[in-house]
Amino acid sequence: MGGLSVQVRSPAAPDPMKRSAPPAAPRATARKPPQGPTGLVADSDCSGELLLMPGQLYFGKAPPSIRTLLGSCVALTLWHPTRRIGGMCHYLLPERRRSPDQQRDGRYGTEALEVLIDMLQRQGTRASEYEAHLYGGADTLPDHVTHKTQVGVRNIEVGWGLVDQHGFQLVGVDVGDNVPRTVRLDLRSGEVQMRRSER
What is the average pLDDT across 123-150? Predict the structure, then answer.
């Protein structure tokens, strides 16, 4: 009985002239654009009077009124008497260094105003058409504190500069001193009420 012959092929030798493909380069990850501004209150979040917290801002006409309480922070209110829209920002600090990939933050005066300017322009309006009120910037530290940061003073300076830069019609001002303030903007009439509180 004849034996079964099996041929086993040896593996082919690698071709020295054939180069292996280089490893694939890692796929570049696209940088995500900054998200919406921090502190911006949406219309959907408004029911009744809107209590604006530090670092927040609002523009539109959804709530009947906006109210906020100020110490060393500054609030800027805006009102368009013809279109009957307006808003308010409540910032804690004047400005910061911001990289392009950081979203704008309502805690900083320059950035809060940038957001409000963008929003009023989307309505087809200009800053010069708005009545503005500027409040706050109190020195809330006790008198015996000698090394004060002057945050309130710097907030006021930035507020004045932004009003002048954008050409708002400034019709009401109460800044400085050492008392807290409550500010209320009626978005049905444009009336602004400011009340000083006891320390």
Answer: 83
